[in-house]
Design a protein that fits this description.
heterodimer; A: 506 residues; 5-stranded antiparallel beta sheet; 16 helices; elongated; B: 15 helices; 0% strand
Chain lengths: 506, 368
């Protein structure tokens, strides 16, 4: 049955993916169907036919740089035209497929009247772009305030100007049957691992999809395990972050039309490092990272433990804590599990409503939801205020995760924990944790282990994972990445400088 | 010659420390004090050391066998005794691994039934734990090494809990005078009982080819055993100074009972948390055992390891639910102890001697 089904799908694919070969006349005829396609010749003596999509090209440019020279100088052939026009990358070709691609990405098509099959293609694309703005999801108080925009070339520019070396390579791949999206893979040659680069390029080439809207499509389709709740590539909107991970030996993937850039291979601890950590002194940065990790554990485990302990092991609560707990729980008509799930779902509702509304209305929703509903629920005796505190804190803690995709995952994985706490108490929580452990141990990011520096244990890599040591101790690139050049800078010289002992009065 | 595993399936030599130690710790540490106390009284801590040192010797012998054979026990057996006899001997090892898995699993379920959930059925817990073990084991040896690594790390946290009974302990002089409680023969008997605590290192015979530069891993393996000795010794000394002899004789799970007096400001009755966390230590045992058995079967018969894994998990499940009460679980432990004792103390030295002789004879017969 399954085989038959597979075969049927395969058959369908074949028929739809066949590249139709169009003749040149056919192409022009198809284009004429659209109102914004313009073909014209100036007078009978004019030797060329010019056609372009009005909505794709820059009209100023066409008039000033193309039509003006052509009408001024007496030229008759395309080769003369190519020499005359002050524009680079003019192509002269007969290949219909190339003509189609270029025409539809903002090139002007110029034909000789005598030999209409030969065409010159002049780039004249008009780019509508947004101003570079400040990062919103990864905002930092100190440090650069640029964020990526939707235009691929501007994004590449923002990174390239930070790493002005010829070894910074960019490979471009076109993905998407309908959208023809430009996807750029950026890496530093000689530092990034060759195998990783090959994996990335191969996986992007293998993507079969029609409409590639955003970088997150790429993440979903090229990651190692699509069914994992954890993101396996970090998406960022900060050019400084991309430049910094590139110099570590990672690879960045830019997608045209997306203000997010993907970086990988990545590891779990990296999701809990905000880029601002690098702008603070190392004690503060380390402390904040540890607080964030603690927040994640609290966020995932606190409600399940509440359910487990109040359902099965209330002996575990110390005597002094027991009386306020009992006072808050007495008279509540629901078992702890129901109470917990109702509150967790309420918090999710608030978040979802807040996320779908404009900022100002969103704030109102937060106040109404958080204060009014919360207080009313406790006063009505539907939930205990202890649980309300726990759930609210857990939600707050989940928002400390700097990477948005990861904080979503963390909120989601709380629910299996709550259910297993109801089934087997503390043991259930541990069994659930075990299943997540087994998943994380098996997970890879571009073929590299996901929870490295912890397992496999790489002590040298711990310097910038769970905590962050001073910058001059960060002399080596992560071992995990198997980089071509393990030294970031001359760490011996840095060490000598550090070790030069200065006496009190020198 | 059976093929060796590929490089990307192998682990670094130092992981042998975690592999050896996590397999040894298991459930036995939760209640071994009572049994050795029965044999040698307050002097039985000496037996822990005797037993542990003898295990180090056996480990050395095992490494000699493996370094010469350069592959796992199935290949070594086939090489020494031919396909059929070698195969039967390998099958014995596989059954023995499964016996160890069943013992660990059933004993842990027993602990849960006594301490946490008295009404939960054995089959219910067995299904959950075996599913968890399956999800680790299908990940392959690297994933299993990972859970062993984590189980040792988690174990270190639990070691610090001995602080609480030490604070309460009244009589540190219980174990004095040294050798004042037992004869030398008693000590040997206690050492034999104690060897159950060190069983499990022989899974090395299966995962040896999965270690990069396996000769270099030997020192880590010895460290692993030494760390086990240290843990057992620490637990025993704390238990001996906390309990009197009569109390200990009546306390089945003495280490667990010690957790009861853990006194933290935010949690009481720590043993609930402790037993739950112990899951990771038990599951690493079970996974390693299941992996070793399924790997051995794959080497013997040409069926995929994944299918063998499902089959042996079913076998383990059926075996586990046969034992219904405390007495039978105790019997199972005693039986495994006996089998294990003879396997490591009798079979491994014999294998060593036979291997040496056979290699010498072959060398003589076929020249170099």
């Amino acid at each position: 049955m399954k085989k038959w089904f597979d075969r049927k799908i395969k058959g369908n694919q074949k028929s739809s993916s066949d590249e139709e070969t169009v003749s040149f006349q056919g192409l022009i005829k198809k284009c004429r169907e659209s109102k914004d396609f313009i073909t014209f010749q100036q007078g009978d003596n004019f030797p060329f036919i010019i056609s372009y999509f009005k909505t794709l090209v820059n009209p100023d440019f066409v008039h000033r740089e193309v039509l003006d020279p052509i009408s001024k100088y007496p030229i008759n052939t395309l080769d003369e035209l190519k020499n005359l026009l002050p524009v680079e990358s003019i192509v002269i070709t007969k290949d219909v497929k190339q003509i189609q691609d270029k025409l539809l990405t903002g090139f002007i098509l110029i034909q000789e009247k005598k030999d209409p099959s030969m065409c010159a293609l002049v780039p004249a694309v008009a780019i509508e772009k947004r101003q570079i703005s400040i990062p919103e999801t990864e905002f930092s108080v100190v440090g650069p305030k640029e964020a990526f925009v939707e235009n691929l070339d501007i994004n590449l520019n923002m990174v390239r100007k930070r790493i002005p070396i010829p070894d910074l390579h960019i490979k471009e791949i076109i993905v998407g049957k309908l959208s023809k999206t430009r996807v750029s893979v950026m890496y530093i040659h000689g530092i990034a691992n060759e195998e990783n680069i090959k994996t990335v390029i191969q996986r992007i080439r293998d993507i079969e999809f029609d409409q590639l809207i955003d970088a997150s499509f790429i993440t979903q389709m090229m990651t190692d395990n699509q069914h994992s709740p954890f993101p396996q590539l970090i998406d960022t909107e900060r050019p400084d972050r991309v430049a910094s991970v590139l110099s570590e030996g990672k690879i960045a993937i830019f997608v045209d039309g997306s203000p997010q850039v993907l970086t990988g291979p990545t590891t779990l601890p990296e999701f809990f490092s905000a880029f601002e950590d690098y702008f603070l002194t190392w004690h503060l940065a380390s402390a904040f990272r540890i607080i964030r990790l603690g927040a994640v554990m609290f966020s995932v485990l606190s409600t399940p433990l509440y359910v487990a302990i109040l359902t099965y092991h209330y002996e575990m609560i110390p005597k002094d804590l027991l009386s306020p707990l009992i006072a808050s729980r007495s008279g509540i008509p629901f078992p702890p599990i129901l109470e917990a799930i109702i509150l967790e779902v309420t918090i999710e509702l608030l978040r979802e409503a807040g996320a779908r509304l404009p900022t100002k209305v969103g704030q109102t929703i937060g106040i109404v939801g958080g204060i009014v509903i919360g207080t009313a629920a406790v006063e009505a005796g539907l939930t205990s205020n202890v649980l309300l505190i726990i759930v609210a804190l857990a939600a707050l803690a989940s928002f400390t995760t700097p990477v948005y995709q990861m904080s979503n995952s963390i909120r989601l994985i709380r629910f299996p924990f709550i259910l297993s706490a109801q089934i087997l108490g503390m043991l259930g929580v541990m069994v659930c944790l075990g299943f997540f452990f087994s998943h994380l141990l098996k997970l890879t990011s571009l073929g590299r282990p996901y929870i490295a520096p912890i397992y496999p244990l790489r002590i040298m890599d711990l310097k910038d994972s769970l905590f962050r040591l001073p910058l001059d101790r960060q002399g080596n690139r992560p071992m995990q990445l198997r980089t071509g050049d393990p030294n970031r800078f001359n760490s011996k010289r840095a060490e000598l400088k550090r070790k030069a002992k200065v006496d009190i009065e020198d | 010659m059976l093929p060796l595993p590929k490089e990307h399936r192998q682990v670094s030599p130092y992981f042998t420390f975690y592999l050896i130690h996590s397999m040894q710790k298991g459930v036995s540490i939760l209640g071994f004090e009572r049994y050795i106390m029965k044999d040698a009284g307050y002097d039985s801590w000496i037996s822990i050391i005797i037993s542990g040192l003898s295990i180090n010797l056996l480990l050395w012998i095992s490494y000699s066998i493996l370094n010469k054979g350069k592959n796992d026990i199935v290949a070594i057996h086939a090489n020494l005794f031919g396909k059929w006899i070698g195969g039967v001997l390998s099958l014995y090892f596989i059954v023995y691994f499964l016996l160890m898995v069943t013992t660990s699993l059933r004993t842990y379920i027993e602990v849960i039934q006594i301490w946490m959930f008295s009404n939960v059925h054995t089959w219910y817990l067995a299904i959950i734990f075996l599913l968890l073990a399956y999800s680790f084991t299908v990940g392959g040896f690297r994933v299993i090494t990972g859970i062993c690594f984590f189980s040792v790390i988690i174990g270190i946290i639990l070691v610090f809990l001995v602080w609480f009974p030490l604070k309460e302990a009244e009589d540190f002089t219980n174990i004095l005078p040294i050798l004042g409680h037992a004869t030398f023969k008693d000590l040997l008997v206690a050492s034999k009982t104690m060897s159950l605590g060190y069983l499990g290192f022989e899974v090395l015979f299966m995962y040896y080819p999965f270690i990069k530069q396996p000769e270099r891993s030997q020192k880590w393996a010895h460290f692993g055993v030494l760390y086990s000795i240290f843990l057992y010794l620490l637990t025993a000394v704390v238990a001996f100074s906390y309990y009197s002899e009569e109390q200990l004789a009546r306390t089945i799970w003495s280490t667990l009972t010690l957790w009861k007096i853990v006194d933290l400001p935010f949690v009481e009755r720590f043993e609930y948390a402790g037993i739950s966390i112990w899951l990771f230590i038990v599951i690493s045992d079970i996974c390693l055992g299941l992996w070793a058995a399924s790997r051995g079967l794959k080497q013997l018969f040409s069926i995929k390891q994944k299918q063998w894994l499902v089959i042996i998990i079913l076998i383990t499940f059926i075996a586990t639910i046969q034992f219904t009460d405390r007495k039978e679980v105790d019997l199972l432990n005693m039986f495994t102890n006996e089998i294990g004792f003879y396997t490591i103390y009798v079979y491994i030295p014999i294998l060593y001697i036979l291997q040496t002789i056979i290699y010498k004879v072959r060398k003589k017969r076929y020249g170099n």
